[in-house]
């Protein structure tokens, strides 16, 4: 009975549910095999579906990979926006929340980080990937820069908001890289201290004594 119900669910899945299922399967394959070694057949087997179903929904491997990257970026943006909204109107609180966001256990997921770095490695040669990543970067940077500018105005700091944004972004990417290279040696607490040290040095009146 359970098998029959499962089969029925698979047959009657909506278009969006099926696409989500295939994208999730693609992410698992990329994390395990990399972009170039992931095939339509791999994805179909991972999802428990036929290659015809994959082709029906995405037409080609390129389309499937592009939509997988877009889904990954959209998921990140949703978490980013939720974190920003939950932090409230205070720019210092919001900036700290965003800085810590990338160190949450959910974000430091070896599989997802492997997928991010797999796509980033192809950005130079794939204009479509570059466009998606650039859109995400511009949105992220604009929000962080806005918060930095508000903090600078409040505190009268002689700091350039764009420079502070670049430093925070580079720190976040560097911490992700450190984690994926050597997860067993990565310490989340030390990483948070590094972020706090930077914020305290740049915006002392806003972060002195903050944990």
| Fold-level CATH name of the largest domain | Tetracycline Repressor, domain 2
Q: Could you give the distance between the termini? A: 53 Å
Order of helices and strands: HHHHHHHHHHH
Q: What's the architecture of the largest domain, going by CATH?
A: Orthogonal Bundle
CATH superfamily of the largest domain: Tetracycline Repressor, domain 2
Q: Percent helix among the residues?
A: over 70%
- Beta-strand content bin: under 5%
Total number of beta strands: 0
Q: How many domains?
A: 2
Provide the residue-averaged pLDDT.
92
Poorly predicted runs of 5 or more residues:
1-9
Determine Rg (CA atoms, Å): 20 Å
Supply the helix-strand structural class.
Answer: mainly alpha
Features:
211 residues; mainly alpha; Arc Repressor Mutant, subunit A; Tetracycline Repressor, domain 2; 11 helices; 0% strand; disordered N terminus
What does this molecule look like?
The structure is a single chain. By secondary structure, the protein is mainly alpha-helical. It folds into two domains: 59 residues, Arc Repressor Mutant, subunit A (Orthogonal Bundle); 142 residues, Tetracycline Repressor, domain 2 (Orthogonal Bundle). The protein contains eleven helices and no strands. The longest helix is centred in the last third of the chain and has 29 residues.
